[in-house]
Amino acid sequence: MLEMIQAVLAEAEDRQTRETSVKTWLDDLQNLAYDVQDVLDELETEALRRELLLQEPAVADQPSSSANTSKFRKLIPTCCTNFSPRSIQFESMMASKIKGITDRLQDIISTQKGLLDSKNVISVGKSRDVGQRLPTTSLVTEAKVYGREKEKEEIIELLLNDDLRAGDGFSVISINGMGGVGKTTLAQLVYNDDRVQRHFQIKAWTCVSDDFDVFRISKSILNSVAKDQSNNDDDLNSLQVKLKERLSGKKFLLVLDDLWNENYNSWCTLSCPFGAGASGSKIVVTHRNQDVAATMRAVSGKTLKELSDDDCLRVLIQHSLGARYFNIPQSLKEVAEKIAKKCKGLPLAAKTLGGLLSGKDDLNDWEFVLNTNIWDLREDKCDILPTLRVSYHFLPPQLKRCFAYCSLFPKDYEFEEEEIILLWTAEGFLDQEYSGRKMEDLGREFVQELHSRSLFQLSSKDTSRFVMHDLINDLARWAAGEQYFRMEDTLAGENRQKFSQSLRHFSYIRGQYDGDTRLEFICDVQHLRTFLPMKLSDFGDNYLAWSALQMLLNHLPRLRVFSLRGYCNIFNLPNEIGNLKHLRCLNLSRTRIQILPESINSLYNLHTILLEDCWKLKKLCKDMGNLTKLRHLKNSNVHSLEEMPKGFGKLTSLLTLGRFVVGKDSGSGLRQLKSLAHLQGRLKISKLENVKDVGDASEAQLNNKVNLEALILEWSARSERCEFETQVLSMLKPHRDVQELTITGYSGTKFPIWLGDSSFSKLVQLKLEGCGKCTSLPSVGQLPFLKELLISGMDGVKIVGLEFYGNICSVPFPSLEALSFSDMTEWEEWIPCGAGQEVDEVFPKLRMLSLDNC
């Protein structure tokens, strides 16, 4: 049933904006899909509970059991079934739910039976009708273009460069950017430049748009280059033969505006005649998706950024008053600047709003436009809406869901790739149709796809983060509909009126104090799946009333994402957290929680627990072995954590673990790492002084963890067992693919041989900190790709000698760029590698040398 509903939803969602009668039907169907998912979730959770409860080989049910005759009983494996009162009550409740869902489905079918016809169901996300947009032309009013002088000159320079060529005899130059940023305008400016006019013998402009019809495009190009003929051919071969004859031996410029095609074969067919052109021929393509440029094998290109506020203001004034900036009446200047800021660098927005104010100099008119939501404007007066919507309509169905989820993020919110992937995973957007692929890999592919389509942008402050343009954020909110709600500064009483039965995902800006009155209204939405407090910055304290927390846990049993991030008054959690049986993602980062409650062990569906910067956290749950689906435990900067709980090694699905704390008890030792074979990314192992047996270090099998990129080995206290610590470190050899390695607080007197082994061919950073009992440095000069070496606090080292360089027959430190020594208080002498060698022979790539407090 669920698979059928999801297939129909792809078709219905594609038509809802054009057929208003579909919207109510779609809401009902989507709500039903959510409820079906919840029922399946409850069945699977109960089955897992019974399996864990038995803890022994299952016994098949007796055939005399009357329950075996029920349809519901067949849904649960007999090995997981028992006859306790709780089980009988559960089965009765689920049978009732399933009957209710079946009845609702029948009602929906009878309401809109035509939409369930299989011939209407489509699996692609491209709309068959995204709205009729006026085709572009090559003409431009240059007096109304601002802020593109540099980009114009860069593109023209590429066009005039006859040495720029591809293997096909012509070269493709791409202009990429989000909708409304001015790609077409830039192409028009370049196309009409006098230098370009003189350089090419033949020029043609074709607006391709969403329909990549090879026949139509070929005919359009032929009509442009054969101006004296009327081409009425209805045969593609005839068209392309004539086009090839026209282009043969001629240096041509072709502009393909607003291209969406990613099909390589279609492009090959269209481009067949172009190879007949003379050397130096160029094709300029404007697009929003970087995959388009890759399909056409573009040799160069330009990604357009937003205009400055000043340039937006010039565009706004030009289209409203037809005047330059200094001619604006003083009474309009301030409001005009605010409207320009509202455009967020999009010239199309400035042009559109300027057009709405054309010829108007009444301050009231300008203030009305300033205070109007662009998405509330009528489409016949605003080109921004259809321009941006087409970016959404070209997304596949699974990407549409992921993009709509981003409507929960406030404007200007900068997010990491991993952050949004964990949320998508928790909501089930990545695991329904792609069970053969790792969800995290698919999520990364989705993020990059949305980035390549200009819906995500890299942050200008931190290139490891993404951000959405304000109008793209508005587009996400439009796409999200009534299933999502982001509360900002509005009052709770107003929010209550906006909620519908379709609401499933909720976010809000954290306040300084969030109590019952602010959040009680959300408890009416018992089907809520996402509870996500947000803030643009983690600075400043935020508080959540304890009564509000209990109220949320008691009224929102279907949550899949529950975040308390940033609430600094959270020292513990109520046991009611165990009510959230559907929970996938629990975020407690930046709280002051001290101990996780035992009831978390009953949350069998938990996929992610975020505990970053919980500096007061002392203990996890006593036994986490029931959380067999847990993939991410992010617990970096939890400096008070005492040890890992017993049974931690049962979490065999774990992919990321920020910190593993070795306990004094044998049940919380290093051996538990053995079964965590899939760990990836960065891992810190601390309190290594608690290791009791060298065999424990060997059993951790760090050398088998191929996906670990960074490893930190930390002794938190000095040990007098120098020889024992030396043996422990020898057994903690990581996999040879590790890229970053840190050893800190080590109490051994020497480093193991493996540390300088040249087989560590991917190691680029090595840090040795506070290893005060070592009397010599390790032989790391032969690590082939080591770029950064930092050594500090090694008080036992008096001489850096030949052992540092390793095999003196070859060039030591061939890739080292940064070398830092600090707090080497006893260091007296540094012996050169070999007699007569210059520094650049020993460190050929060295760019930075630091000696601090030596």
Total number of helices? 25
CATH class identity of the domain at 142-303: Alpha Beta
| Unreliable sequence segments | 56-74, 118-131, 490-495
What CATH calls the topology of the domain at 142-303 is Rossmann fold
Number of DSSP strand runs = 28
Describe this structure in words.
With 854 residues, this protein is α/β, with parallel strands linked by helices. Among the domains are: 2-120; 142-303, Rossmann fold (3-Layer(aba) Sandwich); 309-385; 395-483, Arc Repressor Mutant, subunit A (Orthogonal Bundle), CATH 1.10.10.10. The chain is built from 25 helices and 28 strands. The strands form 6 sheets. It has an 8-stranded parallel beta sheet with strand order 9-10-12-14-15-16-17-18, covered by helices on one side. Strand 21 (708-714), helix 24 (722-731) and strand 22 (740-744) form a beta-alpha-beta unit. The longest helix is centred in the N-terminal third of the chain and has 35 residues, at 20-54. It starts with a helix and ends with a strand.
